[in-house]
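#random but structural
TW: two for the price of one
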Amino acid sequence: MEPDSVIEDKTIELMNTSISNGTSSVIVSRKRPSEGNYQKGKDLCIKYFDQWSESDQVEFVEHLISRMCHYQHGHINSYLKPMLPRDFITTLPEQGLDHIAENILSYLDARSLCAAELQRVISEGMLWKKLIERMVLTDPLWKGLSERRGWDQYLFKNRPTDETIESNWRIQCRSENSKGVYCLQYDGEKIISGLQDNSIKIWNKTSLERLKVLTGHTGSVLCLQYDERVIVTGSSDSTLSVWDVNAGEVLNTLIHHNEAVLHLHFSNGLMVTCSKEHSIAMWDMASATDITLRHVLIGHRAVVNVVDFDDKYIVSASGDRTIKVWSTSTCEFYGDRLVVSGSSDNTIRLWDIEWGACLKFDNKRIVSGAYDGKIKVWDLQAALDPQAPASTLCLLTLVEHSGHVLQLQFDEFQITSSSHDDTILIWDFLNVPPSAQNETRSPSRTYTYISR
């Protein structure tokens, strides 16, 4: 028998017909040709099938399926079902599309995520954070759990220096009343802070009442300084703004840097600013409305994070892991001399610039803030003494922030710190002589907790 006759063999035998409970069950069996003819016919069909286009193949299969009985449909369905699911989520990260995988998974609930075999995508990304933030916004119970506790629950509360489990589950949700504080300055009457929401806020230091909100920047306010006349702010929008400290109005806008302004300092008619673009700018300040660019200092190979100066030196610290010293009068670059420096390598170093003199915060202490949220007070005299044991260097460790410490200032009586956890803390500074205490744990102290 020829293969064509095999294909056209329509012999159907009806068998095994049974009727029970008002239903009928019919099993249809086609007569199968001899083994040799069957194999030849099958091979010929497959040969023709492989030569067709995909659309022709689909049309042919549809035609075949339409001629089959229900039993055959069920058998084919059982065969196809394991082939249809595709674990495309695990293949997306291999193509550099982790963000798409995370976005898709964000529509699942926590139970589904725990049950799925998607460990790498879930653990390495921000999926859990996005899920929790969505729950906080939509579920009243979650929202209540995320609200911050008042400052009175923190007052006089001792905190260990070790990391607590709370830091692992504290919800860092963003809301209208919770914005990151990037910088601040204060005096006896007020606190002025720069925020992630592009605004500058002025607070009454005693009552903690918000007095003014200054708006005008189109990026986060990363640095600021003020005196009795003006506030100067630097922003991620690459501009500097000069504000009337009393009226809160913009007096001047300085456009020079091409990227975010990270730090600034002004004094006695001179202002120095530094930027993400690796440069330092010197400005002459005749008045709030008359500020002109004097010189641009170039030498760092990475982001310039901090700059400061006095009547003799300009000191800058950069992400290139160098600290450079420049002449204030001539803008000449000096070699290695003295600087007090802090670094992301978890160390504070003292550098000898000239004649052993130290550029320091005061004559007794150095105060530093770190990415782990801790604030440390160091004994400057012990640090200058090469014979002093390491255990005498750190006087105090203040533990309360749960995010990076971004800015801090201190005087004889208080330390004010701001953090990425959206808080400002004002600490009562224990005026303990360096020789009287070597504790590295937080002592009994009071502080005021601000969250706005």
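TW: number two ↓
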Amino acid sequence: MIRRNTWILLVVLAALIGLSFYLQNQKTKQAAQATPTQGTTTLFTADSGLPTDIKIESSTGQSVEVARNASNVWVVKAPTEAAADQASAEAAATQVGALNVMGDVQLGLDVVGLAKPSYTVTLTFTGGKTHKLIIGSITPIQTGYYARLDAGAVQIIDKQGLDALFTMLTNPPFAATATPASTATPIETSTPEITPASATETPSVTETATKSP
């Protein structure tokens, strides 16, 4: 006859075996979900138009923003308002259109760093439509960032493309300014003080007149 303690041990052992199978199954399922779908597409299509405003904010408080003004010229709006280097700003706009989506994943926002994003990118395109892209953790193989566009599905976006945009946080595309020419400091010369000549007394007529005999 099997003792009561033995039955308890058998039940515990069975429970442990069942838990082990469950955890292994969950691990396999999670690994499958974390594998991005095959194929690479761009995040924005030609139908999205061209970027007219690019704003990047980091979780550390840094921010940069470039936008086209009424004259269709790029200007820097943050961290301070200033003229923009047109080539650098245009390169950033081109990079936005070239961002590649490496695949979708089915993972929780907290797992991939999107519950508290590392970066927030706000983009406005021709036509006035605005998109919000939040960026989370880097993928385990260091080739992409977990990201989410407009509260959509979690995606993996090419790390190289996003890093190119993030460089603007530390190096805003300000226009180069010419170094002002140095001017010689004028030498002060003292002006000699002119002392007015002392007035000469004009002899009185009565003093100079000769008395007649």
